[in-house]
């Protein structure tokens, strides 16, 4: 939740309540023999008020379990109350204790309570800053729950592109072999969720450098596109044997039109088979101008490699989102369970303190 | 539009049923919440189930005096859930009843007239736990001024009368002058009838320093001691270093003022007899004795030296020593003679102004036997025994706790001389300028407040520095206290 102008009334109300509580505490502390303690009249009332506020703050997690009754208030209002009344409860509990730490159970309560409050404040601060950072650095944000599936989709597309690339650049080539090996060892695991802690692809710059080196090693030029490849194939038209023109020219036209499919790096399903067929057809049709074949293949390989780099870059962005998400919500793994422990310990404190 | 994010291909990229399965974060929250809840509940349950671990629930360790109870909370706590009643302002119920405290501490009452926090009237002026709050450190009896001031800052009594001061905030604020409740300046009631000049005695060693040693050979050593000890020549503290021990004639006066007297009538005694008579001081009557003691000593002496008198006129009539009745007549005559001489000597001691007994004691009358009644210093009269009757609460001071207090100038407070040993006596007691017996040389409130004022560099000035609350003489052995059982040990 972003702290904005909508919180002003809550802040003012909490501040007023804090000032009133402090004044009441000072008065009660001075007029209570031995000072205000948890067991004095004022101390007990401070304890009740603080506990009620803690209970209200804890009820936020139960809110999603009940229907959206109109009288119960909006979730946003509850969240504001959770923040500000939860903070106010700290002051009231301090007043309840007379700013003392008490015995062993009370000390444990203090540690748990302080951890809950601090984790909540940390979470609030993170939620003030990280969403903006995420919006600036990650353009294609995906729902966190979708990340495993979505990254699997990305990996599938990368696998298709890589399989197609193997048809263009044989693994038998020494440099190509090293690339395919690196693809299996580094690129594919990079699409796992959660992402591996150690990776080559720490940011966009590292990714660009890595793929530039791969491109140099594999002698892949600038990224090609379907139009350029279609133009190259079209250039084969004069080389077609006139005797076979009736049979081959339709095949050439089909090959030209099929270039769009070959360069479609988004819908990669069936790409390797399409590439296999296109390259075979191209070699058949390019007998009169064999230099066109490697030129077209190079265009395709270049586009596929660029597509793989794009997928890795997108995954890198999602990895940042993944990490930010863990920061944004990971504190809840401390905040919420300790709140459950606080509930049990508080009940024990209340019962035993009143019993003795 | 980026073809990779074309809405038409949305279902190719995204799951449509992802919301049906909980996310890892939500699963983690639930799992760890359940773990935390179970662990803390089990832990608390174990602590409750094991009494020896109940100290875990204490707000703080028990005071050192109650350390013997250990974790056995029931030794003190018997009113369970009574704490909850304190939610209602004005109710001071406690889980520890006064009876539990009184099992061990038969503490005496404070003031039966006070109305604040009164309970168990006749024995206790307030609930024990109103002042003695446990689990707040090692000292249960060392109370803060706030505990006293909450009543004494605006004292309320059942008869509306304020006996000492109505609004005492601190020793430096609102505290009355010492002994002001007597309604008059503190004076020695023996003044005018018993004589002692502090100024004269403190300067004596200096005034007589040029006296030839051969003139007063016996006093030379005493003057040296007086010069060295100053006030301590007479005033010494008890073993605790707190109170001054009474002045005793034998210890403090006899060296310079021996009860010596020449045998009477003068001139009938051989020199050796007279010298011996004069050299042996008479024993001074003690606090519970009278001049009868002097008379009996003189009689004994005169009977023992009767045969040594030179004058024939004084000799007894000699009868033939053949009959029993003759011996009896001789003996009767010796006793009559000794009594005559004794009365003659008593006149030297009792009746001459400025010398003998009259140096210190004023003669207040004569007994039918002819013995004088002499004014005694306060110590010998039980000090304030007579005055107590006029005190605000005489009954209170008749309790054993105040038996000693009745012998003190300010019975409502204590004083520790040893704590002030770095000062000279005369820094606080104006003895060097005091020449009258009735002048009580106790420092006043302003003198004490020079150091005990609660300022930044003040000496300790809280109420308990000087005052006590309970009548400790009423403390008794525990009635029902049982020592907590030792934890079970392993087998042999």
Notable features of this structure?
heterodimer, A: 356 residues, mainly alpha, 14 helices, rod-shaped, B: 492 residues, 13 helices, elongated, disordered C terminus
Description:
- The complex is a heterodimer of chains A (356) and B (492).
- Chain A has helices at 8-31, 41-58, 60-63, 75-97, 104-137, 147-168, 174-190, 204-218, 226-234, 245-257, 259-262, 271-285, 292-330, 332-355.
- Chain A is rod-shaped.
- The mean pLDDT of chain A is 90.
- Chain A contains 14 helices and no strands.
- In chain A, 36% of the residues are buried.
- With 492 residues, chain B is mainly α.
- Among the domains of chain B are: 191-247 and 383-442, no CATH class; 271-317 and 324-374, no CATH class.
- The radius of gyration of chain B is 39 Å and the shape is elongated.
- At the A-B interface, helix 2, helix 5, helix 6, helix 13 and helix 14 of A face helix 2 and helix 5 of B.
């Amino acid at each position: 939740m972003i702290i904005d102008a909508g919180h002003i009334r809550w802040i003012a109300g909490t501040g007023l309540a804090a000032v009133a509580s402090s004044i009441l505490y000072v008065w009660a502390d001075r007029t209570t023999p031995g000072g205000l303690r948890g067991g004095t009249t004022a101390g007990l009332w401070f304890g009740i008020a603080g506990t009620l506020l803690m209970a209200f703050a804890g009820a936020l997690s139960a809110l999603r379990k009940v229907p959206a009754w109109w009288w119960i208030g909006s979730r946003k209002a509850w969240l504001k109350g959770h923040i500000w009344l939860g903070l106010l409860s700290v002051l009231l509990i301090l007043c309840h204790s007379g700013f003392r730490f008490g015995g062993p159970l009370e000390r444990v309560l203090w540690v748990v309570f302080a951890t809950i409050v601090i984790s909540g404040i940390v979470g609030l601060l993170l939620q003030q800053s990280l969403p903006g950072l995420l919006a600036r650095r990650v353009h294609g944000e995906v729902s966190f729950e979708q990340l495993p599936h979505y990254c699997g989709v990305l990996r599938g597309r990368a696998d298709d592109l890589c399989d197609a690339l193997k048809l263009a650049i044989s693994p038998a080539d020494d440099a190509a072999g090293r690339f395919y090996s690196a693809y299996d060892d580094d690129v594919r695991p990079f699409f796992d969720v959660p992402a591996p802690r150690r990776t080559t692809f720490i940011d966009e710059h590292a990714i660009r450098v890595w793929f530039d080196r791969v491109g140099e090693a594999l002698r892949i030029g600038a990224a090609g596109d379907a139009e350029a490849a279609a133009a190259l194939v079209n250039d084969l038209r004069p080389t077609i044997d006139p005797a076979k023109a009736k049979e081959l020219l339709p095949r050439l036209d089909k090959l030209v039109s099929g270039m769009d499919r070959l360069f479609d790096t988004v819908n990669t399903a069936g790409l390797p088979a399409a590439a296999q067929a296109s390259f075979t057809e191209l070699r058949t049709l390019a007998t009169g101008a064999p230099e066109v074949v490697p030129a077209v293949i190079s265009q395709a390989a270049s586009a596929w490699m660029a597509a793989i780099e794009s997928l890795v870059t997108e995954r890198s962005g999602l990895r940042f989102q993944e990490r930010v998400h863990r920061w944004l919500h990971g504190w809840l793994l401390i905040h919420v369970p300790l709140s459950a422990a606080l509930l049990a310990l508080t009940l024990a404190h209340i019962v035993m303190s009143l019993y003795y | 539009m980026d073809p990779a994010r074309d809405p038409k291909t949305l279902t190719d990229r995204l799951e449509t049923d992802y919301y049906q399965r909980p996310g890892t974060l939500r699963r983690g929250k639930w799992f760890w919440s359940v773990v935390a809840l179970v662990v803390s509940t089990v832990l608390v349950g174990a602590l409750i189930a094991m009494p020896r671990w109940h100290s875990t629930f204490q707000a703080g360790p028990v005071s050192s005096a109650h350390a013997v109870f250990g974790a056995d909370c029931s030794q003190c706590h018997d009113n369970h859930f009574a704490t909850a009643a304190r939610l209602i302002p004005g109710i001071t119920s406690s889980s520890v009843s006064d009876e539990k405290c009184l099992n061990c501490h038969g503490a005496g009452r404070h003031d039966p007239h006070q109305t604040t926090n009164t309970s168990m009237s006749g024995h206790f002026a307030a609930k024990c736990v109103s002042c003695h709050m446990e689990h707040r450190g090692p000292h249960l009896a060392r109370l803060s001024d706030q505990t006293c001031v909450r009543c004494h800052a605006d004292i309320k009594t059942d008869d509306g009368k304020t006996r000492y001061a109505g609004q005492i905030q601190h020793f430096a604020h609102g505290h009355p002058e010492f002994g002001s409740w007597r309604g008059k300046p503190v004076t020695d009631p023996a003044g005018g009838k018993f004589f002692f000049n502090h100024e004269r005695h403190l300067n004596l060693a200096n005034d007589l320093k040029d006296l030839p040693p051969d003139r007063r050979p016996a006093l030379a050593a005493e003057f040296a001691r007086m010069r060295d000890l100053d006030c301590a020549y007479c005033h010494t503290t008890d073993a605790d270093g707190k109170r001054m021990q009474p002045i005793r004639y034998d210890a403090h006066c006899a060296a310079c003022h021996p009860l010596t007297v020449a045998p009477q009538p003068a001139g009938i005694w051989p020199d050796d007899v007279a010298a011996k008579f004069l050299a042996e001081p008479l024993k001074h009557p003690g606090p519970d004795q009278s001049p009868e003691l002097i008379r009996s000593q003189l009689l004994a002496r005169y009977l023992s030296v009767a045969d040594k008198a030179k004058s024939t006129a004084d000799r007894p009539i000699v009868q033939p020593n053949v009959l029993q009745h003759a011996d009896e007549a001789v003996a009767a005559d010796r006793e009559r003679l000794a009594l005559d001489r004794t009365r003659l000597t008593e006149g030297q001691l009792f009746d001459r102004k400025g010398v003998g007994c009259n140096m210190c004691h004023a003669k207040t009358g004569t007994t039918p036997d002819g013995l004088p009644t002499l004014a005694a210093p306060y110590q010998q009269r039980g000090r304030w025994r007579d005055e107590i009757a006029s005190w605000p609460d005489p009954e209170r001071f008749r309790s054993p706790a105040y038996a000693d207090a009745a012998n003190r100038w300010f019975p409502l407070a204590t004083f520790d001389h040893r704590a002030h040993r770095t000062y000279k006596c005369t820094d606080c007691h104006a003895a060097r300028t005091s020449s009258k017996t009735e002048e009580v040389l106790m420092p006043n409130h302003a003198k004490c407040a020079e150091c005990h004022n609660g300022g930044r560099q003040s000496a300790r000035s809280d109420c308990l520095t000087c005052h006590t609350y309970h009548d400790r003489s009423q403390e008794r052995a525990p009635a029902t206290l049982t020592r907590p059982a030792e934890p079970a040990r392993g087998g042999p």
